[in-house]
Amino acid sequence: MRVRKSIIIGLFWALTFGVGINAQNSFFNPEVPDVVQYEVTPDVKYGEGKVNANGKVAMKDLTMDVYYPKGESSEPRPAVILTYGGSFHRGNPRSSYTGFGGQTTSMSQYAMRYAAEGFVVFTVNYRVAPDNPIVDEYSGYTEDDIDVSIFTNPAAVAQTNMIRQQMGLEALTNENAEDVLKAAVLAAGEDLRTAIRHIKAESDVYQINPDKIALGGFSAGAVTSINVAYGMQEKVSAVFTNSGFVAGLKIDNKLATAESNPPIMLFMSDNDYPVVTFLTQPLIQILKANAVEYHFNWVPGFGHFYPGGAVTLSDTGDKIPLIERTLGFLKEKLQ
């Protein structure tokens, strides 16, 4: 128990201090020059999510940016859906994070590159804790499948409150922390699933193959991708995660009873947050036990925040930049 508590403390101190979010539009511009090999349609509505607005139930529009390869294709294209990180409290697809000597590549930057390689890419916004999301119906999972204990340890609550203080939010208490964080984690998953279903239903509009969709994300976005692909068992063809782990939904039983599970590519830095290091090992054991294809890669020389150009090391010993390794994985599984 003491080990678990120290890990939680380490995680939330790291989340709180020395981390900056770069300006919203730093890496996003819908007006792109002709030399750029993609086109983008910003702020496309993919659904609505229920929120508590000053004590009243309201609906929040859920939006995404859509990146298309330039040029015509004789057949529907494969798709990638990207989910940003931010402790289930903050962030957006167009922003990057800077801290601890590193800077992330934003989801919009990844999308630009993937679109230039022939994928239609969707970068989604989703409900976060300050939205006061409401999740009052479960589909594809039950209360027994939920485990948010990693977020609700008293030490974690104290550190989460430092983030909330920076954002001008009311502090959580030990009494309401579980409800607030549980709602945020589940809402993120519900919204990503809504996006997947919308994209599949409108596959003709987006000119994509609904049977060739991959999920990818960073940190909280990586956790959400894992929850949706394995915990909710939403059908996708592949998953890749930057510093993701299992939290929110238990996936063991779901993997064991599923007809099939998508392959996953995992990235973790050698100086990542303790919780990532601590929870990646059991994730790999679960994947192994259920014969899920996985590819684990180290990102040396960085903490939790690392760019797409960072060199990665696989178990075969090869050295490939992260974005190139994910592209190889996507092309193998989707094209």
Automatic annotation (TrEMBL):
Any GO MF annotation of the entry: hydrolase activity
Keywords, sorted A to Z: Hydrolase
Pfam families, A to Z: Abhydrolase_2
Residues annotated as domain Phospholipase/carboxylesterase/thioesterase: 187-305
Coiled coil feature spans: none
Name of protein: Alpha/beta hydrolase
Organism encoding this protein: Carboxylicivirga sediminis
Lineage: Bacteria, Pseudomonadati, Bacteroidota, Bacteroidia, Marinilabiliales
